[in-house]
Design goal:
This protein is mostly beta strands and 121 residues long. It has strands at 2-7, 10-13, 18-26, 28-39, 46-51, 57-59, 67-72, 77-82, 91-101, 107-111, 115-120.
Length: 121
């Protein structure tokens, strides 16, 4: 059993910053790729950023240069630093992790509960 718990969502003015965090806990052997997705009303869930176990990163074109993803492998935690926020960034943000659990040789996909980010103009 693995859980991902997210922190850091909230309301911010355009041009401001927020920092999201997501901590994984449970019977974890290792974590491969971790990432952040978001879903706005009336839109599909989309990948915002991802980071491999070795630190390689990938960003959506709309956030590249403004957002930074990082991870702390010792803490099983992934972060998303969001700068220069605009109203188009308003969405529910979900943490995702590909986890090798202790009881299985297979990798499972886990999701956080979601945290609301609202950017006002």
């Amino acid at each position: 059993q693995v859980q991902l718990v997210e922190f850091g969502g909230g309301l911010v003015q355009a041009g401001g910053s927020l920092r999201l965090s997501c901590a994984a806990s449970g019977s974890i052997s290792s974590i491969n790729t971790m990432g952040w997705y978001r879903q706005a009303p009336g839109k599909q869930r989309e990948l915002v950023a991802s980071i491999t176990s070795g630190g390689g990163t990938n960003y959506a074109g709309s956030v590249k240069g403004r957002f930074t993803i990082a991870r702390d492998n010792a803490k099983n935690t992934v972060y998303l630093q969001m700068n220069s926020l605009n109203p188009e960034d308003t969405a529910v943000y979900y943490c995702n992790a590909d986890v090798l659990v202790s009881s299985s040789p297979r990798i499972y996909d886990y999701w956080g509960q979601g945290t609301q980010v609202t950017v006002s103009s």
